[in-house]
Every structure is written in structure tokens, then in C-alpha cells.
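Problem 12. The chain below contains 195 residues. Write out its predicted structure in C-alpha cell notation.
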Amino acid sequence: MTAMTRRTWLAVLGLLPAAGLVSWAEGSDKNRKKETHTWEDIPPRELIRRRHLPDVALVTHQGKTVRFYEDLVKDKKVVINFVYTRCQGVCVPVTANLVRVQKLLGDRVGRDIFFYSITLKPEDIELLRKKLGFTYANPVEDADKSNHVGMIRTGNEPYLRWAACPGQAHPAWIAKSILLEMDGPTHLAATASAG
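Solution.
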């Protein structure tokens, strides 16, 4: 057997406190409950729904109550904008633009592409407005109800394709943007080459 050198003894002595700490930690682990973490496996579509598409109750212009997600968005291709019914600002040109866009999209509107204009006046719309991203980064600017974003949100809910574009952009550009989200770039390219 080889004799231990002074250096070996010092190394062993240096390790003893660490060994005691490990032994103490193992003992204290036995005294407390074992912590376990479980992670919920959420499909991407459900995650987007939870974060951005609340199923709030809305009342249509005909007085019918509908659920935002279940009745208006789920399994659909949608175009969403927010307006004030008595707006003197951006609402008028955006609404006029969307009428032009609907004409460009033709019979697809109401068949497989659905347009929704949601009034900002009822206070319970605030959650929906924020979840859909119709907000200003500056909280002071966002709190000013006379000032609102003139954007439109487009979405192909089953395919998780969501985008936004300026509501006052050229109607042909808006229509092209909508079709890009609704049909994808491959279909749009095929349509352009066939025409």
C-alpha cells in the first residue's frame, strides 16, 4: 500500500465538509415532501385560443347573443376590426375601405370569409380588444378612448394563421393580404399564374 502524502491528506480533509453537506442534504430531502412539477401539454390551437381568443358574449346588430370564439371565430376565416358607432375619425375611412375589400373578395364574403366589426363602446369589449392586440404600447395613449387603432386583424383559425394590416391601406392590398392569410402563399401564387 502506498503512503499518503501531505497533499493527499489535505485533499481528503477538504472533501469532508462537502461530504457532510451532501449527507445533510439527503437527510433533509427525506424530511420534506418530494416536489413534482407537471407541465400541461396544450396543443398550439388551444394555447392561441386561451391567450388571444376569449369566448366572451357579444350581442349582434340584430340583438342575438353570440360567443366570440365558439360562434364567430372557431373553424372560420375572419376579418375583425373595432369601431365606434358614432366615430368622427378613423372608423369612417376604414369601414369604407372594408366595403371595397368585400367587393373585391366577391362571393367568398359570408361563405368562407367572415367580416366582423365590433363596437368599442360597451366596456366589456375591453378584454377582447386587448387580447386581439388592438392596443397602443403607450398606456396613456391606449386609455384615451377617442383614439383607437385603425387596424384590421385577419385570421384563419383552424390553421393558426393570424395577421394584421392597416385599415386605410389600398383595398386591393388589403384583399391580397386577407387571401394570403386565408389561402396561403401557394394558393395565391397559383391564382395569380392562372389569371
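Discussion. The two ends are 91 Å apart (CA to CA). Students who got a different answer should revisit the alignment rule from Section 12.3.
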